[in-house]
Design goal:
The chain has 322 residues and is an alpha/beta fold. It is built from eleven helices and twelve strands. The protein has two domains: 113 residues, NAD(P)-binding Rossmann-like Domain (Rossmann fold, 3-Layer(aba) Sandwich), CATH 3.40.50; 180 residues, Rossmann fold. Strand 3, helix 2 and strand 4 form a beta-alpha-beta unit. The mean pLDDT is 97.
Length: 322
């Protein structure tokens, strides 16, 4: 059997890479985060496992990978590694789409309840030692509009439905969804404003592509309910942050729960830190115990399929961007 070579772009000795130790002797693995070493080792590579999401090393070594057949990204988002040479090449690209859907969906449910029950107000009263009853909202009967009804969006709807919420989905190809008991309707891209106008909670779970850049801006905030909450677990580039800050400060929407931002880390002094109607998560909504190991487990399963000549899971449409 001809050996298979896997080149891993990551920090040597990283704990999550221990899974590679279980591979048979017929699989040759080399791990590095040094460009010179990677350029040499990738010349005989069949597979690249990319663990550095900014993509600079992958872009650098790609021209030297003359026998490469498959690249797997440990990140779900691939916008930073879709350089033109990779897009037009026959190399298959897969990603971690859906691997973190449970933890992300749980964050969404937590954010819904955070605003409905006004936990920030409760904490302020507790810290002040003050007994200050007030009326809380129910989420029962409220509408959750999910922009990007893929693996993660579906997981959000599945968990919101038992709370009595009405679920609307939006995706580029609505015909790919249907049959889920929790889904009232799935809309197409041209119906974004319709979804926004109906939704009490708007969840952004769509990938970052040129088409989705600043998908939510001034016009979109204008059609949302004043009582609506925006929850972004997709990418910071999906939202015009200046328009969002204005909408939040002027009370045109109730609030926002954010896990992703246009600039990360969020700079000191950013308005999101001071706004009382914003819940800031430092891009860690999917950082649960063993989350990186779960990511590696998916790769290892896909690698077994590759070695057997079977179809790979989570193949990215490189031209579509996800």
């Amino acid at each position: 059997m001809t050996p298979t070579k896997v080149v891993v772009i990551d920090k040597p000795g990283a704990n999550h890479l221990k899974a590679l130790d279980t591979l048979p002797a017929s699989v040759n693995v080399e791990v590095s985060n040094q460009a010179a070493l990677l350029r040499e080792s990738v010349q005989e590579a069949d597979v690249i496992l990319n663990g550095i999401p900014d993509g600079h090393l992958l872009r650098d070594i790609f021209p030297h990978a003359t026998r490469l057949r498959w690249i797997h990204s440990l990140s779900a988002g691939v916008e930073k590694i879709l350089f033109p040479e990779l897009v037009v090449s026959p190399v298959i690209l897969t990603n971690a789409r859906g691997v973190f859907k449970v933890s992300l969906a749980e964050f969404v449910i937590g954010a819904v309840l955070y605003f409905a029950k006004d936990f920030r107000r409760l904490i302020r009263s507790q810290q002040a030692g003050a007994w200050q009853p007030f009326e809380m909202d129910e989420v029962y009967g409220k509408v959750m509009g999910i922009v990007g009804y893929g693996e993660t969006g579906r997981a959000c709807g599945e968990r919101a439905y038992p709370l009595g919420m009405e679920i609307l989905g939006l995706r580029r190809r609505p015909e790919l969804s249907g049959g889920e008991p929790w889904l009232k309707a799935v809309l197409g891209p041209g119906e974004l404003h319709r979804l926004l106008a109906k939704s009490d909670y708007v969840v952004l779970a769509t990938p970052a592509t040129p088409q989705t850049r600043r998908l939510i801006g001034k016009a979109e905030f204008a059609v949302m309910k004043a009582s609506a909450v925006l929850i972004n677990i997709g990418r910071g580039s999906l939202v015009d942050e200046a328009a969002m800050i204005d909408a939040l400060e002027q009370g045109r929407i109730r609030g926002a729960a954010l896990d992703v931002y246009e600039i990360e880390p969020l700079p000191p002094g950013h308005p999101f830190y001071r706004l009382e109607n914003v819940l800031v998560s430092p891009h860690c909504a999917d950082h649960t115990p063993g989350f990186v190991e779960r990511d590696m487990e998916f790769f290892m399963q896909n690698l077994q399929s590759f070695l057997k000549g079977e179809p790979l899971h989570n193949v990215v449409d490189k031209r579509a961007g996800y």
